[in-house]
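Page 42, continued from yesterday. The earlier attempt failed because a stray header line got pasted into the input along with the sequence. Redoing it now with the clean sequence only.
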Amino acid sequence: MFLWALPYAIMDMNGRMIWSNKVFAELTGKDQFYKKNVSTVFPDVTADKLPVADKKETAEISTRFGEKTYRISMQRVSLGEVVAKSEFLENSNRNVSLIAMYLYDDTELKSYIKKNEVHIFGIVKRVAVNSNEVVLMSSRLTKNLLDKYRSI
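This time it went through. Structure tokens are written below.
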């Protein structure tokens, strides 16, 4: 597997996979030319989450796959933008769009976020306990001062 290559796949506008790079194929255990809908691999990627024409150009979701957490980033790409400057593809339909999908492994990041939340909760809890102690101490001090003032 390529150390720094991102898992990457191309889909049609309905989410049917057309092609993926080797990293994506190795990660998912699917052929590079797997022709089924992306939801057969990632059930969280449903039709309503795809970046479809005239609605949204990009979409991101977080999902679990195996033991890891991935951020799936999808972007609609109009083929017209690509073929406009290409002599090789000049007879292609310029109204066709595809979806490019990248996978980012967020497992470690999510782990750090969770640890940080636990740490912050501990700090907040200690501050709350300390605040209660300060309130009790100040009320005792106030009572003692009032008692001393009354006795004068």
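Notes: Residues 49 and 59 are 7 Å apart (CA to CA).
Reminder to self: strip header lines before submitting.
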